[in-house]
Amino acid sequence: MRIDYQVMEALEQLERERGVPVETILDALANALVSAYKRSPGAAEEARVTIDPESGEIHVYAQELDEDGNVVREWEDTPEDFGRIAAQTAKQVIAQRLRDAKREQVYDVYMGREGDLVTGIVQQVDHRYVILDLGDAEAIMPGSERIPYERLERGNRVKAIILEVRNEGKGPQIVVSRSHPDLVRRLLELEVPELVDGTVEIVAIAREPGHRTKIAVVSHDPNVDPKGACVGARGSRVRQVVNELRGEKVDVVQWRPDAAQFIAEALGPAKVKEVVIDEETKTAEVIVPEHQLSLAIGKEGQNARLAARLTGYKIEIRSDRPPEIEPRPPRRSTPRLPGGRTVPGERR
Questions:
Q1: Same domain? 214 vs 203
Q2: How many whole angstroms separate alpha carbon 336 and alpha carbon 8?
Q3: What is the pLDDT of residues 22-53, one digit of tens each?
């Protein structure tokens, strides 16, 4: 009895295309056939199966073991209809090995790529996660890694960064994120060559996904304006990032070695008059013009909050308007009667 020639050709093709040795598949097939034999009527309790890799011939040898597990007798016991069983089992084993080979290939391609930017097509969306088709693999985006209130629909093409690649029992799992601050970094690198060649460097990022991001940049070339390089002519470069983030605001500020100057930059677009630093407590008192106060603080404190996270200082903002002194209430005069006498019940 032998394996069908088409099955043998499939094994050889699997070895060529997926790099899975024929011997490995035949060993797996032999083990599977042992289990299939034991389920057949009148089968021995123990057996082994041999498969000739050249001819594909199959032989089943029943075994008798002693108390120590040693083989004391062995005889060929290949069932008459074992060819049909072998063919079915071979197809199952090959299909499983194909799945295993694909999983191993996916893991080899994506392992060590944490932080890389990928593009995927939305395949499935629910409140727990989003499934993205990356072309050669699937990625999962947990609900915690989504941009809040972002509407994703099946068929949408989106970008995300790889957070983690896990090699689990069911195959590799690629976890991606759209809420991580580094997504903005990677998106900006697509648009700004100076970031890729190292002329401009992103020093810090503070992000509230779906609302606003502040990025601090510095130039290592005195002839290159880091802020201008990232924003682009008429905002063309940063606009591409904003579009991918569905309208999330992106502020690019210039990093300064002086903490006071950096804090003033970070609070943009508000204009700052003075910054007083306390290095021991890592706090900064910021004075702004009265008409700039609400701009410096931002909606629900967002601008000040992001500036604090970007710079690492606790920021207290107040206006330059001096505190008003409350006027004293007018003194009550005591009613008097003719002759200088006071009204009864009133004090002099």
A1: yes
A2: 125
A3: 788 888 888 888 888 888 888 888 999 998 88
Give residue 348's pLDDT: 46
Q: Say yes or no: 18 and 97 in one domain.
A: yes
What's the total number of domains in the chain? 4
pTM listed for this prediction: 0.71
Backbone angles phi and psi of 250, in degrees to 5:
-125, 115
Residues, the chain: 348
Extract the runs of DSSP E, i.e. beta strands, from the chain: 46-51, 58-65, 71-76, 117-125, 129-133, 138-142, 157-168, 171-177, 200-208, 212-219, 249-254, 274-278, 283-288, 314-319
Say if residue 38 is in the same domain as residue 85: yes
- pLDDT tens string 169-195: 677 899 999 999 999 999 999 999 999
Task: Write the CATH number for 201.
Answer: 3.30.300.20
Whole-number Å distance between alpha carbons of 329 and 325: 12
Helix, strand, coil shares of the chain, percent, nearest 5, are 35, 30, 35
Residue 338 lies in a domain: no
The domain of 48 spans: 5-110
67 with 10, same domain?
yes
